[in-house]
Amino acid sequence: MKGSVFKYTVIALFLTVLALPTVLGALSSITGKSLDTGLKGYFDRHDKPEFSGGSFRDSSFQTEYGDWFGSNYKPRGIYIKTYNTLRFNLFGKAHNIIGKDDYIFEFDYVSSELSLEPKNDFSLPENREKMEDYVYKLQRIQEELEKKDKKLLFYISTSKADLYHDYIPENYLIRKPEGSVRGVDYLMECLSGTDVNWFWTVPMAEDLPCESFYATGIHWSRPFEQKVDLEILKRIRELTGKNMKTWELTDLQTSNEPYFRDTDVFDMMNLWNDPFTDTFYQYDTVNVEPEDSEDVKILMQGGSFAIGFREDLWTQYPGYSLDYINYCEYYVDKDRNVTRLGDDWNNLPLGDLVENADILVIEVNEAVISRYSNGYVDALYEYLCGSGEG
């Protein structure tokens, strides 16, 4: 009897799960309500295809309908979050690397920190050669900018895998190749032999009122980010010699709600769990505007860490002149207009941007050093120095 009850219960559950997408889909159409939970992150979007005899015969309708249904059926979000939650809580598995004390890491950061891929091992002669060429071009770019009375500032944003190295799971730590050299170490060694204006952000993690990276995020905590952003502004002021508007960090605020990107990676895991971190921090700010303040036009290229500076600058002074290039993916002008670049520097009015800027700022994160600024430094070098040099 007990076996029969179990069997029929399993069958009922199976049929319920099977029928739910059809039932909830129909109810959603009738009520106009989602009847599902939202998911965070990027997902492919597919339009519902229109049926025709031709599309049915060549199977394109079936393929397009399958794509549409797969990304739109109800309760897709509930199923995915439930699956992710069970996988994480029962087996400690997730799309990301889960380290000590539930610190989340993304593979690219761990690979760079431990030189797990050949491109990230700078004991290899071919990688050292590329790095030396990259730094040489930075030096030449700075020299040519100086002739135009313009400046260059280069900085390295640290990674969670660096500052929380010991939190990386042991099965990754033991894979570090013997004698390997991190990209950030060889980059700083090369930069130290030049006059390039550069700095590393790791020292600014000292004396923070909280963690430099939360367990829940891949970007630095807001107090760390705010300290770095002020350091960038300070160095821009020193290099340009202009009396810029700035701001000061004042009272430290706490909240059980994240500030900006404090839970970005946790959110992307799409779990039913509450965040692993329950207290977040951020400094209040006060604007400092000298009576004789001067405007500085900034051209900035980098990744998601550089976005923090962009957002802080525009939050404090919405009218500030900053043109921002994200890798070679898109460009945001000072008026917030976005242009997609499609990994092609020919889609960017580089010459106009350089000539209009007072200072060029380049951000490189430890995890993407082996990308060599996605060709941006090469494009600058060609524009400023000519492709025939070197």
Question: Could you please describe the fold and organization of this structure?
Answer:
The mean pLDDT is 86. The chain starts with a helix and ends in a 5-residue tail after the last helix. It is built from 14 helices and 11 strands. 32% of the residues are buried. The chain has a 7-stranded mixed sheet with strand order 4-3-11-7-8-9-10, with helices on both faces. The protein is α/β, with parallel strands linked by helices and 390 residues long. It is 43% helix and 14% strand. The chain has 2 domains: 90 residues, no CATH class; 289 residues, no CATH class. Helix 6 packs across helix 9, helix 6 crosses helix 14 and helix 10 packs across helix 12. The longest helix is centred in the N-terminal third of the chain and has 30 residues.
Secondary structure layout plus pairing:
Blueprint: H1 2-31, H2 53-57, H3 60-72, H4 76-91, E1 97-98, E2 104-105, H5 107-114, H6 125-147, E3 151-157, H7 160-163, H8 170-173, H9 183-191, E4 198-200, H10 222-240, E5 246-255, H11 264-269, E6 280-288, E7 298-302, H12 304-316, E8 322-326, E9 330-332, E10 338-340, H13 350-356, E11 359-365, H14 376-385
Parallel strand pairs: 3-4, 3-11, 7-8, 7-11
Antiparallel strand pairs: 1-2, 5-6, 8-9, 9-10
Helix pairs in contact: 6-9, 6-14, 10-12
Question: Top keywords for this entry?
Answer:
alpha/beta, seven-stranded mixed beta sheet, 2 domains, 390 residues, two-stranded antiparallel sheet
